[in-house]
Specification:
This protein is an alpha+beta fold. It has helices at residues 3-32, 34-39, 43-71, 79-92, 99-113, 138-141, 151-161, 171-185, 188-193, 246-252, 267-277, 283-289, 293-309, 353-364, 390-399, 425-431, 435-454, 526-535, 542-553, and strands at residues 142-145, 196-200, 204-206, 209-217, 222-231, 237-243, 316-317, 326-330, 336-341, 375-378, 381-384, 404-406, 410-413, 416-420, 423-424, 457-458, 467-469, 475-477, 484-485, 490-491, 512-513. The longest helix is centred in the N-terminal third of the chain and has 30 residues, at 3-32.
């Protein structure tokens, strides 16, 4: 290869790295503004920042591709050019603090050039170039606190370390609450054995809360150590809770919540520390929670390839009632479902393929409040043909033929969403015999619908088959093809009349919704309807929906605490 080609490769590699670093500065600028938005209670600005931070990635990617096309025609380059380009990029990445994110950005640029039709580790980072070592850069991301004094002194040191530009409403009371909460959680012997308290330097902001996230270490066990902060109406700080239960931390980092704003130069070290706190979370879930959703896709794909190598089961249709808009399938041994938009929808679904994509984008950029599952979008996703059951393949070819390409060895899916696997709520309610658990699930279902509405999203198709239930008993919505903002619907009362045909003469527009009819289709069985109406009668009340709609129109932003009320300080 000529010296000229080497110079071109070095320049292209530099363009890609420069594009990544520009994107990361942009990402960090938005993330770094989270503290001021939190302190000043700028909740609408917080929502806007979430949307902006998601949107900037593809803009940065497109800018770099355009610059490369000004320099060369990349599609005219031979394979050797791309193999050498990857090596050039690796050389420039040496000691880079965000090397793993830069590799994903490189993949995005190359993938965009080849329209995601090339999956080749010789020219892309399908596998990482290096491994993250536990404890790497720990000192750069963690603060350690003295445990030799009193609990109160340690808590005071913590609150003094994390500086905010607004005062505490009652710092002494907050310190008393923290002291009392930790003493209630640990007995005297455990407290005496504490040898390390570490808290990440980055404050984690989301919605109307901020979190100091760390751990408390004893010889026999290590517990999460999370201080949750809020701002009151007077723009004063209050400590809302001290959380030391791993379940609480897991819920805070749940897959149905918006991404955190946590500013750092070393995301791999942050993700590594969180992995130690949450060993049951997949690594891609932690990058996702940090807002690095593109890199999360890369890490997921690597995890998926690894699982494929260590499993033998076949892909098959997912359990549950077949959807009208999506074909859904899974690998039984893997905790993910795969969703493909069908080629045609029935007459009852007056929507288009692009509308469905818009709905999924809306959820991606909204505060999912712990009630809407996050999704990742892929193009040209490849499955080994021998691992796809014939029954599933027949079903996909029947309903999603335009999205499927077959080769001798692969099933290529041109457009695909992945989502966390849950038990469909209709299956759960059919199988569950415990009346207490049934009531809990129906209570969760009603809360889920109400909270999504309060977050300014009308769920649309609220059949209970469109909801899942997690192993912790939390109900999550996952079918988005009919969602919209609350202002896109008109909530109407049914006319009061003895005439059984009065509805036939009623003038109804596509935007009209009659909540009094919800009881007939959210759940089907009579005893389930009765329980739902008993627990959540507001769902069938048009006035409830109009009031919720009005609050959203006024710009009110709700906050949904991701831990139980009994954990909050009074």
């Amino acid at each position: 290869m000529t010296d000229f080609n080497h110079q071109i490769q070095a320049k292209v590699a530099y363009l890609i790295l420069q594009g990544f670093e520009k994107n990361y500065r942009w990402f960090s600028r938005i993330t770094g503004g989270a503290q001021n938005r939190f302190e000043q209670a700028q909740w609408r600005a917080t929502q806007h920042a979430v949307k902006e931070r998601i949107a900037i990635y593809e803009q940065s990617e497109a800018d770099v591709v355009a610059e490369i096309y000004h320099l060369i025609n990349p599609l005219h380059q031979e394979r050797a050019f791309w193999c050498e380009l990857k090596e050039q990029f690796l050389t420039q990445l040496d000691q880079h603090p965000q090397f793993e994110l830069a590799e994903t950005f490189y993949n995005s640029v190359v993938g965009r050039i080849f329209k995601h039709q090339v999956i080749d580790n010789d020219i892309m980072f399908i596998l990482p170039s290096r491994c993250y070592l536990p404890g790497q850069r720990r000192e750069s991301v963690v603060n350690s606190f003295d445990t030799t004094g009193t609990v109160g002194a340690m808590m005071a040191d913590i609150l003094a370390m994390y500086r905010f530009n607004v005062p505490f409403a009652n710092k002494e009371k907050d310190l008393q609450n923290l002291d009392g909460a930790l003493r209630a959680r640990l007995n005297r012997q455990q407290l005496a054995s504490v040898h390390t308290v570490e808290i990440l330097k980055s404050v984690f902001y989301r919605s109307k809360a901020a979190y100091l996230i760390g751990r408390i270490c004893m010889p026999e066990e290590t517990l999460p150590f999370v201080i949750a902060l809020r701002v009151n109406d007077n723009k004063q700080l209050i400590v809302d809770a001290l959380l030391t239960d791993r379940h609480d931390l897991s819920v805070i980092f749940g897959f149905a919540r918006a991404y955190f704003m946590a500013d750092t130069r070393y995301p791999s070290a942050i993700a590594g520390f969180l992995q130690e706190l949450l060993p049951n979370k997949k690594h891609f879930e932690l990058y996702n929670a940090l807002g690095h959703y593109k890199h999360a896709k890369t890490v997921f794909f690597r995890n998926f390839l690894q699982h494929m190598e260590t499993s033998t089961d076949q892909f098959e249709a997912a359990p549950g009632i077949r959807g009208l808009v999506m074909a859904v399938f899974h690998l039984p041994s893997y905790g993910i479902v795969f969703k493909i938009i069908k080629d045609e929808f029935p007459e009852s679904k007056k929507i288009t393929r692009e509308h469905v994509k818009d709905c999924y984008r809306l959820v991606k950029t909204s505060d999912r409040i712990g009630r809407m599952a996050d999704t990742h979008e892929y193009v040209n996703f490849r499955l080994p043909r021998e691992r796809v059951s014939q029954a599933l393949l027949d079903e996909l070819l029947e309903h999603c033929e335009s999205s499927i390409e077959l080769t001798e060895s692969e099933v290529v899916i041109k457009h695909l969403y992945i989502e966390r696997k849950m038990t469909p709520l209709n299956i759960y309610l059919d199988q569950e015999q415990d009346e207490t658990k049934i009531r809990h699930a129906l209570s969760e279902l009603g809360l889920c619908i109400k909270q999504i509405a309060a977050a300014n999203i009308f769920p649309g198709d609220m059949l209970h088959k469109n909801f899942g239930i997690t192993r912790h008993g939390r109900v999550i919505f996952y079918d988005y093809d009919e969602i919209c903002l609350m202002n896109k619907r008109v909530f109407r009362d049914l006319p009061k009349s003895d005439d059984p045909y009065v509805l036939d003469t009623l003038s109804v527009s596509p935007e009209d919704v009659f909540p009094e009819q919800f009881e007939h289709f959210i759940v089907g069985k009579k005893h389930l309807k009765t329980i739902l109406k008993e627990i959540h009668p507001e769902l069938m009340d048009p006035e409830f929906w109009r009031q919720t709609q009005a609050r959203a129109a006024e710009g009110h932003v709700e906050h949904f605490t991701p831990y139980s009320e009994d954990k909050r300080f009074k």
